[in-house]
Write a structure and sequence with these properties.
Layout (H helix, E strand, L loop, with lengths): L37 E2 L2 E2 L3 E10 L3 H13 L5 E14 L2 E14 L3
Antiparallel strand pairs: 1-2, 3-5, 4-5
């Protein structure tokens, strides 16, 4: 094994980090106590989160909105959305498509 004080190495050969990775902490913005979803007057104890990728030729905001609007076609009770990442498709030195990865939270029905 390694010498005392030596950090372990991950698959990429980088040191293991202590604690959660940046951006992977539980997201309080998706379900705060002040905005908890209700079902028939009762506070929902369980909220499901799905990940979607939205796109738009105009902006990151419109790409995120496209993801939420598409989810709303088949889901009820959407309580929040969190943009996880943004990327863009580039052609001829110009952005031709904005893309957002969005976590969408919604209350589970029983």
């Amino acid at each position: 094994m390694g010498q005392e004080g030596e950090e372990g190495r991950g698959r990429a050969g980088l040191p293991h980090r202590q604690g959660p990775r940046q951006g992977h902490e539980p997201d309080q913005r998706l379900s705060s106590h002040s905005q908890r979803p209700t079902l028939g007057g009762f506070v929902a104890d369980v909220v499901k989160v799905i990940t979607l990728i939205g796109s738009s030729p105009e902006s990151f905001a419109k790409a995120a909105d496209a993801a939420v609007q598409e989810a709303a076609k088949t889901l009820r009770g959407i309580t929040g959305a969190h943009v996880v990442s943004m990327s863009a498709k580039v052609e001829s030195d110009r952005i031709t498509e904005y893309r957002t990865t969005v976590d969408v939270a919604f209350a589970l029905e029983r």
